[in-house]
Amino acid sequence: METTDKSLIDAHRQGDKTAFEELLRRHGDSVLGYLMRMSGNREQAEDLFQETFKRVHEKAHTFRGTGFKSWLFTIATRVAVDGLRRRRRLQVVSLNQKLDCANGSGQESGAVVVVDNSCEPSQEAIRAEQTQQVRQAVELLPAKQRATLVLAYYQQLSYPEVAEVLGCSIGTVKTQMYRALRTLAQRLPDISGGEK
Amino acid sequence: MKPHLTERELIEYEFKLASDIQAEKAAEHLAECRQCREYLEQLKRKFAALDLLREEIKVSDDLISQVVEQTPRPVQPRVVSFRKPAWIGAAAAVLVVALLLVARLGEDVMEERKFAKGPSEPAEKLRSELTAETQIVSAEDLAKDAATRTTFALARKEKEAGKYLERAAIGEAAADVVPEKPPFAPASAIELVVLPRRDKVQLTIYNSADLTLVRERRNLTLKKGWNWLQFMWANTLIDPTSLSLELLENTDKIEIQQLVFPARLRELGRWLIRSETSGQVPFEITYFTSGLSWRAFYMGTLSQDEKTMRLQGYVRVGNNSGEDYEKAQTRLVVGKVHILDQIAELAKRQYPYGRPEVRVDFDKDLKVGEELDRSAWYGAAFGQVGQIVDELRRKEIIKEGLSEYFLYTIEGTETIADKWGKRLLSFEAEDIKVESLYKYDQERWGSETIRFVKFANDEEHNLGDTPIPNGEVKIYGQADNEGHLSYVGGTSVKYIPVDEEVELNLGPARLAKAEPKLMDFKTDNFMFDRRGNIAGWDEIRTWKIEITNTRTLPIEIEITRGFGTAYWTLQFDDQEVSYEKHDATHARFRVNLEPRSKRTFGYTVTTYHGVREETLAEKN
Q1: Cβ pair B410, B330 in contact under 8 A
Q2: A134 at interface of B, judged by CB pairs closer than 8 A
Q3: Distance from CA of B475 to the nearest CA of A (A)
Q4: Which residues in chain A are contacts of B283 at CB distance < 8 A?
Q5: B284 lies within 8 A of chain A by CB
Q6: Residues B417, B182: Cα–Cα separation, whole Å
Q7: Is A39 within a domain?
Q8: According to the model, what pLDDT value does residue A41 have?
Q9: C-alpha–C-alpha distance, residues A44 and B235, integer Å
């Protein structure tokens, strides 16, 4: 019999660390996926991930017993929004930082960065290029629209669940979703390969 | 026919944003309208691009372990009681529970750590142990739990057992083999993994050419497999052809394959690295850059009697390279370097490739005059990084001789930001014996008397440890008894080797004058040839030189007189003055003057011309 999220949280509150690890394994992938799509950066997403589960641990007693996923994503969203806002506020542009580098992200000139790529040529290269365009298009969305899109589309939360996570009405969620899609319709690459 | 659906209506329909009624109407319309259906298909294809981001994202075991380890004991809701007896009772209860929890947590933590570390035994052994453990635990728990409830521990252990087996199997089967074929790296498919800062940086700045060698040490996080390391030099003066990457550890497991300058991408290069290990690895990157420079300058303060001098040497390091160098160990090289291309020009090229023949590297293009000592060059360029000393005391500049070069190493580290300059004390020597001398030489300086300060770069003069690099020198004198200084003069000095004398030309003197006057001129001793033409004669000139010293110190003045011929004789009317033959055509004499005094002396010079030259030669 599958243990419920509630029983795991209860066990955790009783001091069972294995329960917390179980929760991490159960929901870690989707939370990390959400945070990666929110931040666009694995390293930052992992930081936010740690912060999210730290807060889950701290706020475990506030969990009401139903809708664990919504509760979890509510925390993750707050952490992501706080983290992204803080990052924006603390972003210090170095005198030698360049913004016109190849991949569009600000990098220190003369700096060495490790890039990893295991793609094959041709199709994979094109696909990678398109993926990057999609990532950029999503990253450029305002935070609330991005959160709505990621939760509803990628995390496949229902609109009421998204509304609960974001603490707003379903109508607002739908409006945000529509605005996000309207913007993306202009920015997404055509991946049909010329098919009409 | 109803009007076509708008883009908004189609998006709302597709993503279930519309109300049920609106959705129903849209569905009805789409069933009838081919055009709208096609437009909807177009939109679907467009939004299908979103699925490119649906990659499977997995949380690593390390990250989970990290989170679990960072999590302290769960926060219990706080219970507050207002009644004292109850409070005491609650406190006692909490204490007991806490003790029990600590004991239990201790066991759990130990257990967690075991799991977090993962399998350390060979896969087969691990598999059998874990399987056995699972069976035993299951049996025990089933016996204990009559209601057949699965405990968290059981669930976890079963899952862990499965996970470990899976992990072990993967480890056995795949063994993380690094593919032989290097990956293709399109410009847009770069994944940023780390952005390491410089751990150490060393600058070797040459003063004779616009050339600086930079050695940077960074810890890079490599993944097992193929890695691309990207280096960018936009808006800097780095010479991309000089880039070099050296591995400092794990040389047997990591191989630097090639440096690529991708087509159409400006101002960046990528190293392809094959790594059989993952984690942090220290690398050293070296390259040449332009825009960093240094120059020496000196300040000399004469004592009141002008017999000794205090000399302070400084170096000023300037940075216009476009790059900040934080906490850099800075080394300054004295000596001439011949380079075939200006680094600044190489740095400005659109692409770093295309002209391999102009490449500047250590072996081919750097020469020191005609006698380059390569070991010295490498020594200067790639010497050991000195120990970094970050103290607030004045930094010492350590000097070393390296064949044609001389290397000055500034103690500790310096932060040299772009567009900034920094002045550092190079050396300081007290009580350098100096000779103040005034010189008068009409052929060189006209009617001015020039002041010199003379000393030697040797031990006797409290110097002589190192050569003194060329630079500007300013000399100050004591203006009064209170120690106020007055500017005496300034000049530039050339490189002064050890044990060499140096005379600092401080410019025209106002308080010491020499004025020669021609008092008489006659010709004599004419000789004629057989036809009665003049074949030789003497010219006799009588000069009077008046020397004035308006200073409060005694001075010595050196007067050089030229006669325009090598055949001359000289007679003084003052027995105290004598001369020395400076060269074939010049005589030089030194005269000492008391403070605020004037002295006049005369001399007669006879020059011999024509066949009279032979007469003089016979006399000598």
Answers
A1: yes
A2: yes
A3: 39
A4: 112
A5: no
A6: 38
A7: yes
A8: 80
A9: 28
Distances (CA, A) of B221 to A191, B72, B192, B197, B200: 33, 29, 11, 12, 16
Q: Which residues of A touch B39 (CB under 8 A)?
A: none
Backbone dihedral region for residue B204 (phi beyond 0: left; psi -120 to 50: alpha; all else: beta): beta
Interface of A with B in 38-77 (CB under 8 A): 41, 43, 46, 49-50, 53-54, 57-58, 60-61
Q: Give the tokens for residue A113.
A: 């960065």
Domain B512-619 has CATH 1.10.10: no
Write out pLDDT tens, residues B337-383.
Answer: 666 666 566 666 655 555 444 444 434 433 333 333 433 333 343 33
- In a domain, residue A104? The reply is no
Domain containing A153 — which CATH number?
1.10.10.10
What pLDDT, on a 0 to 100 scale, did the predictor assign at position B100?
66
Tokens of B362: 């250590």
Question: Quick one: pLDDT at residue B281?
Answer: 86
Q: Which residues does B295 contact at the CB level (< 8 Å), separation at least 6?
A: B207, B315, B316, B471
Return d(Cα B430, Cα B301) in angstroms, integer. 9
A15 plus A73 within the same structural domain: yes
Both A44 and A125 in one domain: the answer is no
| All structural domains of chain B with their residue ranges | 7-53, 58-73+84-117, 119-175, 512-619
How far does Cα A74 stand from its chain's mean position? 12
Helix (H) or strand (E) holding B542: strand B534-549
A138 and B53 in contact by Cβ < 8 A?
yes
**Domain enclosing residue A86, as ranges:** 1-90
Residues B242 and B285: their CA atoms lie apart, in Å, by 10
Query: Do A82 and A138 belong to one domain?
Result: no
Give the Cα separation of B448 and B532 in Å (integer): 45
Q: How many domains does chain A have?
A: 2
Question: How far, in Å, CA of B536 to CA of B526, rounded?
Answer: 6
- Whether A80 and A124 share a structural domain: no
Number of H helices, E strands in chain A: 8, 3
Lowest-pLDDT choice from B106-120, B233-247, B483-497: B106-120
Domain assignment present for A110: no
| CATH number reported for the structural domain that contains residue A21 in this entry | 1.10.1740.10
Q: What is the pLDDT of residues A85-111, one digit of tens each?
A: 766 554 433 333 333 333 334 344 444
Q: Which of A51, A72, A90 is the last residue of a domain?
A: A90
| Tally of CA atoms within 13 A in the half-sphere of B570 that contains its CB | 23
Amino acid at A174: K
* Cα–Cα distances in angstroms (integers) from residue B264 to residues A175, B218, B268, B463, in the given order: 42, 27, 10, 56
First-residue to last-residue Cα distance in chain A: 49
User: Same domain, yes or no, for A2 and A85?
Assistant: yes
- Chains A–B, number of C-beta pairs less than 8 Å apart: 274
- Considering the domain architecture, whether residues A71 and A125 belong to the same structural domain is answered as no
Residue B256's contacts (CB-CB under 8 Å, 6 or more residues apart) are B245, B246, B247, B271, B272, B273
Is the alpha carbon torsion for B95, B100, B106, B108 positive or negative?
Answer: negative
pLDDT above 80 for A188: yes
Q: Is residue A105 part of a domain?
A: no
Asked whether the beta carbons of B298 and B314 are under 8 A apart, the reply is: yes
Q: Is A169 touching B (CB cutoff 8 A)?
A: no
**What ipTM goes with this model?**
0.73
**Looking at the predicted structure, is the pLDDT value of residue B463 above 80?**
yes
Percent of chain B with pLDDT over 70: 68
Residues 6+ apart with CB under 8 A from B29: B2, B4, B5, B36
